[in-house]
Specification:
165 residues; alpha/beta; Rossmann fold; 2 domains; 3-stranded parallel β-sheet; two-stranded parallel sheet; 12% strand
């Protein structure tokens, strides 16, 4: 979706994200990084991914903080890491040294939906914004369970589902 909109994308399954970001920024790192994934991040380097899965299986960790780790390690010194993903419990292997020693600002919080709902709706009604471009699937309400499975398992390029009663 981002690539279709003209943005440069990096596939973490193909390249090391930190290395790619350093190369793109002349070795400095991005000024700002956003973790909008949270506990749904399922991939990472093999050894850390296995570590996270073992910790989760033994109930010693509830999160998969790979995207957050990458954001902290990739951001330039003095940069900002914003977390709008969902972390609800304990996470391990948090790079506190990189965060502190490189003077990163860590901003967190879930989206302020009620704050933005009315102004966004007004912009949609005026035709300034078109949210339909993110809709990838339309299904009947009775097909909602299957649509959720498709979305959850990242099948069929599913990004946003609209349910019709």
């Amino acid at each position: 979706m981002a690539a279709d909109a003209g943005y440069l994308t990096i596939n973490f399954e193909d390249v090391d994200v930190r290395s790619a970001l350093l190369e793109l920024t002349g070795g400095r790192g991005p000024d700002k990084c956003i973790d909008a994934v949270g506990l749904e991040a399922t991939h990472g380097s093999a050894h850390v991914n296995i570590y996270d899965r073992v910790k989760q299986a033994t109930r010693m960790e509830t999160e998969r903080p790979h995207a957050l780790r990458q954001a902290i390690l990739s951001c330039r010194s003095g940069g900002i890491v914003s977390v709008v993903g969902v972390y609800g419990g304990m996470l391990d292997k948090f790079p506190a040294g990189a965060w502190m020693n490189r003077a990163l600002t860590l901003k967190t919080g879930q989206a302020h939906v009620h704050r933005y709902m009315r102004p966004l709706l007004e912009r949609i009604e005026k035709g300034e914004l078109d949210p339909t471009r993110i809709i990838t699937h339309r299904v009947s309400l009775s097909d909602a369970p299957q649509a959720y499975e498709t979305f959850k398992n990242k099948k069929d390029n599913c990004e946003k589902v609209v349910l019709t009663p």
